[in-house]
Amino acid sequence: METNALKIASDASLNPGQDLDGLRAQGVAKLQKLAPDTWSDHNVFDPGITLLEVLAYVLSDLSYKLNYSVEDLITVEPGESLAPTQFLNSEQVMFSHCVTLADYRRLFLDIPEIKNITISVRDERSTGATVFDVIALASPDSQISEDSLREIIHSTFAASRCVTHQLGHIEFYKSVPVHLGMHLVLKNAQDLVQVMTDILSKVALEISPNLTRYSAQELLGKGMYVEDIYVGPSLHNGFILDEDLDSTPVKKHLYSSDILDALRVHPNIEQIEEFRFIIEQGAQPGYEYWQVEVQELDPNSVNLAPELGFLSEQFFDAISLVIEGQSYVLDEDEIALIKLAISERIAEQTLELQEQAEQAPLAFLPLSQYRSLQHELPNVYALTEQSLNRDIDSEQKAQLLQFKGYLHLFDQILADQHKQLDVLPHILALPQYTHFERLGQIMDRMLSSEALSQGLLDEFWHRVKALPHTQLSQAVTGISGVNHLVKLALEAYQQQGLQQQLESDFSVAQLTRLNDSIAHLLARFAIKLPNANLLKYREVFGFYINVVGACHNDPSEHEDLLLRLVLLRQYIDKCRLLNEIGSLGENRCRGFDYLSKEPKTAHMASLSRLVMRSLGFSHHGQMPLATHNRESLYLLESDLLGNDSTGNLFCVLPNWTTRLQNTAFRVLVESQIDKLRPLHLSAQCVWLTREQMSLFERLYFGWLNFYGQAQRERFAEGQAHIANVAADIGGLLETLLVSEPDTMIENIINYVLAKPQGMEVLEAYLVQILSEYASEPLPNEIEIDEQSYTQVRSAVTQIINEHSALYPEGFSEDQVLYLATQLCIDHICTPNAFAQSSSTRFTVGYSPLPFLKPILPVSFSQINSNTAVVSKFIVATSVPNRIDPEGNEE
Fold first, then answer.
1. Torsions phi, psi for 30 (to 5 deg)
2. Do strands 319-323 and 253-255 pair parallel, antiparallel, or not at all (unpaired)?
3. Residue 514 has pLDDT above 90, yes or no
4. Burial level of 703, CB count in 10 A (0-12/13-18/19+)?
5. What's the superkingdom here (predicted)?
6. Could you report the per-residue pLDDT of 424-452, keeping only the tens digit for each?
7. Is residue 324 a contact partner of residue 315, using CB atoms and an 8 Å limit?
8. What is the Cα–Cα distance from 40 to 879, expressed in whole angstroms?
9. Which of 201, 419, 630, 829 has a CB 3.0–4.6 Å from the CB of 619, allowing a cystine?
10. C-beta of residue 861 within 8 angstroms of C-beta of residue 877
């Protein structure tokens, strides 16, 4: 007898939460422990045991609902406003930026007008730069010019490139026809046009193959894993496998063996008696029977791409056919039909992409509905008597109401536990923008040390009260006497139960659980934000406690407001990161799009956005920074600036904002940048004062405009001068970044002095500034013709000392040189600056960034006070007549 025979269990195992006998036994055991002497009768007739059995039944009902599938539990009610996005799909979170040559090749092949492409990395030994040269083969049915296709390739690269990667030459393959000599013996060739179309199409695709594209469903059907499908950049026209990329380069040699292998298995070919390549010149005798070098087909051209020359008039002259032992010559009509059919066949996709079927929505189940346990007790208990809604005018009613009050405690707990099922669809979903984004913008103002108007304060309290709850309550309905049992307005209780008693608005408990739920969702992507103590939010929000707390709108005023503000900011940071997780992941190391015509807003790379999002920076991409206290950074790529260094990233940050002037927070910033940077690149943080930042970012903004226009017009004639100016300014920027920040003014002035007529330009600005701040015209004409920064500084100091009576107190050479440097930057970023060739004319139109200018003797600074525009920003300073060198504002 087989001892291990498969048996059917005589009793089905129950979920512990649905085992009524087990739940009853647990309850009785608890009673025996709590009241061993006073409650000894546990038989089924005891009223207490009856109540225990009813509780066990209601608990089993709740357990039954919790045992539904996840799909049922997270299905929301139809018509619900702002339906949650519960799970990000693979297309949203698994793609990445371009890393390998194969990634870039996929990126370009996704352009419909490109059939094939070759990418090579140029050997830039002098600079070490990563430059990609491209040779594209246009699709046969492409209707656009090479110039237009070149612009498409360039814009596609600029929008998707990895930091430090550059695009080199863009060239195009020239199609060269391949002619063949074949003698074929055919069989079963009733439809000769169809047979020859099929044969020659196979030959054409062997010579110039199409890349096979797949849908995700097809690849899953092939047994591929999701993580192996969604790799590289996001594509719009199907997935391309690595093996297909490797097997379909633009061919430089053609081998007869490859073509013969494809034809031998053709069902209509009985025998191939002759096969050869027809070459007019250059080939060695006999080689035409087994191989041909594509370059030999047109020795006077370069970048040749072979294609079957079936459209030429002479092509079919070298093809002879034998059908059933008889020679057969194709007539003109048959040839015309074959040519047309081959063209259509080649243009078709090898496999049509299958559209993914949409899954039908699941039916909504009202799982949170709760029926009071009082309905389950025997009628003899009289718990459903409606007379209890009226006055309690007898001892019997009072006793019954007392019993109902005891039961209502269990009722309310069970009703709230059922209501928690309504939280599931939202607690596992992406947070709604309406819940956090506007609050985030208000708190961004706090991080920027900006004032909060009464309107913003009122809006803040209105929105924190609307934050989603993590614990829900609902009223117990369908029973009498509730108006006597609940010490709340009956209408309020019926609307939201005991919500404020369970979890009050803007409470520590609510904010803590909200943070925990979002942290759980982020953990699915292996993301954990820095500890709140390291983020230094308390130091910032501490300045706003009195203002925010004075509104008397706090629903949890007994709790620590500063702690709640910190928890709220952490929740907002997590929500923002989670909602951007797809784009941040896909573009993790993507550089900025230098082709954008709006560099003031498009200068930010995705890598810098990821860094700032993880640290809770207030204003991503803010430009300018010097005229604000807003948190942001500039990410510069050394490969784009010049030739002195490559593979370096420069992160330029302000050192005067509340958090960024904290040494510990700076250490955290630098560690996050080092953690998130690409491993093959180095990163250097440059911390600048307000004045240094003003000089740097105005020069950087000028470079962005020149470099952007140079790239947009790089393929046009006569635009090399723009690229030269961009490279010149980029070299100066790189010098500033690798030097000590305190030498910034010196480096810029020395740069100007080294240019033709540089001394004349600098002298004009110095004289202008010295004359402008003098209380009356200077007695003597000023001349400054020194040739170094040190000499210029000494000359300015001497002039101020000689005419000290004409200048306000505190006026110094530092202010003069700072303002002169600002004016020099405007000159540097002016087309045809420093006596460029008069034959070169170009325009780079943009408005320079504003900068701080000291006004003396009044103790404040103003933006561009010498312009006709009314100033909108005034910064008081701590040192009379001087912009504070530490960047502090008072």
1. -65, -40
2. unpaired
3. yes
4. buried
5. Bacteria
6. 888 878 888 888 999 999 999 999 999 99
7. no
8. 85
9. 630
10. yes
Q: Tokens 């309550």 appear where?
A: 473
Task: Let me know: does 51 contact 377? Beta carbons within 8 Å.
Answer: yes
> Which pLDDT score, from 0 to 100, does residue 878 have?
39
- 288-306 in b/e form (b: 16+ CB < 10 A) is beeebbbebbeeeeeebbb
Long-range contacts of 461-466 (CB under 8 A, 24+ apart): 461/551, 461/553, 461/554, 463/438, 463/439, 464/439, 464/505, 464/506, 464/568, 465/505, 465/506, 465/555, 466/435
DSSP E strands: which ranges in 514-637?
634-637
Handedness of CA 331, 335, 336, 338 (dihedral sign): positive
Q: Which of 734, 835, 749 is nearest to 784 (CA)?
A: 749
User: Position 806: which residue type?
Assistant: L
pTM of the complete model: 0.84
Q: What top-level class would CATH report for the domain 89-172+212-243?
A: alpha beta
Question: What's the DSSP call for residue 115?
Answer: E
Query: What is the pLDDT, as a whole number, of residue 644?
Result: 67
- How far apart (Å, rounded) are the C-alpha atoms in residues 237 and 106? 10
8 Å CB contact between 865 and 855: yes
CB atoms within 10 A of CB 357: 7
Structure tokens at 366: 């009202």
Long-range contacts of range 141-145, CB-CB < 8 Å, 24 or more positions apart? 141/347, 142/113, 144/113
CA 94 to chain centre: 12
Residue 661's nearest CA partner among 693, 635, 683 is 693
Nearest Cα residue to 537 out of 662, 452, 655, 676: 662
Burial degree of 597 (CB within 10 A; 0-12, 13-18, 19+): exposed
Of the candidates 526, 601, 611, which has an alpha carbon nearest to the alpha carbon of residue 163? 611
CA distance 880 to 818: 17
Is pLDDT of 314 > 80? Answer: yes
CA dihedral 136, 140, 145, 146 (to 10 degrees): 20
**H or E stretch covering 658:** none
Pairing mode, if any, of strands 682-688 and 852-855? unpaired
Confidence of residue 3 (pLDDT cuts 50, 70, 90): low
Residue-by-residue DSSP string for 816-833: HHHHHHHHHHHHHTSTTT
State residue 60 phi and psi, 5-degree precision: -65, -35
CA-wise closest residue to 208 among 81, 94, 294, 287: 294
Quickly count: other Cβ atoms within 10 Å of residue 19's Cβ.
16
* Number of neighbouring beta carbons within 10 Å of residue 621: 18
Q: Closest Cα partner for 569 from 534, 530, 537?
A: 537
Of 361, 364, 373, 430, the residue nearest 68 (C-alpha): 364
The CA distance from 665 to 87, in Å, is 34
Q: Is 35 exposed, middle or buried (0-12, 13-18, 19+ CB in 10 A)?
A: exposed
Which of 474, 498, 480, 499 lies closest to 415 in space, CA to CA? 474
- Supply the pLDDT for residue 1: 45
Structure letter (DSSP) for residue 868: S
Cβ atoms of residues 65 and 367 within 8 Å: yes
For the chain, domain boundaries = 19-67, 89-172+212-243, 175-210+248-347, 373-583, 586-603+615-844, 850-890
**What is the amino acid identity at position 172?**
F
- Alpha carbons 192 and 321: distance in angstroms, whole number: 10
Chain centroid to Cα 429, Å, comes to 19
Cβ atoms within 10 Å of 571's Cβ, excluding its own: 26
- Checking if the pLDDT of 836 tops 80, the result is no
Query: What's the residue count for the chain?
Result: 890
List pLDDT tens digits, range 716-747.
776 778 888 898 999 999 999 999 999 999 99
Those residues with Cβ within 8 angstroms of residue 90's Cβ, 6 or more apart along the chain or in another chain: 216, 226, 229, 230
Distances (CA, A) of 680 to 22, 547, 607, 675: 61, 48, 14, 12
Residue 304 to residue 294: CA distance in whole angstroms: 7
